[in-house]
Amino acid sequence: MKFASLTSGLAVLAIAFAGAMAQAEEIAVVPEARDALPDDIRDAGVLNIATSLQWAPFGFTDESGEPEGIDLQLMTLLAAKLGLEAQFNDIKFPSIVPGVQTGRYDAGVNQMGITAERSEVVSFVPYFNSKYGLLVPAGKSDTDINDLCGLKLALTQGSSQIAIAEELSAKCEADGKTPIAMDFYPNSADTYMAVANGRGDGFLTARAVGVYTAQHNDKLEMTDGILDGRSSISGIVVGKDDAALQNALTLALVSAINDGTYAKILDNFGVPEGILTVEQVETPPSF
Description:
Layout: E1 12-14, H1 17-25, H2 31-36, H3 39-44, E2 46-51, E3 60-61, E4 67-68, H4 70-81, E5 85-90, H5 96-101, E6 107-108, H6 116-119, E7 122-137, E8 152-156, H7 161-174, E9 181-185, H8 188-196, E10 203-206, H9 207-215, E11 220-222, E12 231-239, H10 243-259, H11 261-268, H12 278-282
Parallel strand pairs: 2-5, 2-6, 8-9
Antiparallel strand pairs: 1-5, 3-4, 6-12, 7-10, 7-11, 7-12
Helix pairs in contact: 1-4, 4-10, 4-11
């Protein structure tokens, strides 16, 4: 699966994959979904998407330097079903929501957890369900993800893991234990490096991300445990008042669920547990 490489200076990924995928999978445009698009996007023929290529396996560059990932493949598939070309903009994670909010990008995707705070300023199309694991320095895989009191977590600025860590820390204090210390980093790559270098005891992350990262970094390991009682629904970010695009993407994703192309992408990346039902896609979490 080949994507065009980054355009110098503009950090824009002009995706050539859509045409090849359409031929290989015989992806047909979904008329109902295309008709639901906002006129300006349908007329432009391009879906302008913000992402960050530092979050494997959702968005990353592969060993040959090509952009790849679950999110890129899924959004390219959905764009094809809408009769559009997917154009990806590689930006910093904390800039994705503001970029969509201000209209600079039509949509954003980076395994973005649907939270109450984000839902105040943008809307979502749910597409992935994951549970949390703990990425730790090599040799410390016996760390208990459900007993983090007194430890230091490395966290990415703007990530949904911050709120979870704060809740866990508050519970530590309520139980008379030492709270969880937290250090914050501007992007995922810096967060990984901090844990690998021992500047943090662990990094709360989606298990799919942690497993992939540990497989490609011998300074990191994934613990076996899963955070009790926690799962996160991730969504495609669209503008708060952009009900038309939200509806169009929902219809395209429902089509991908029904024809099996959505499940095929997640299966290929080894995360079938992340698959959502049609009902879950059509009903974003409410707060």
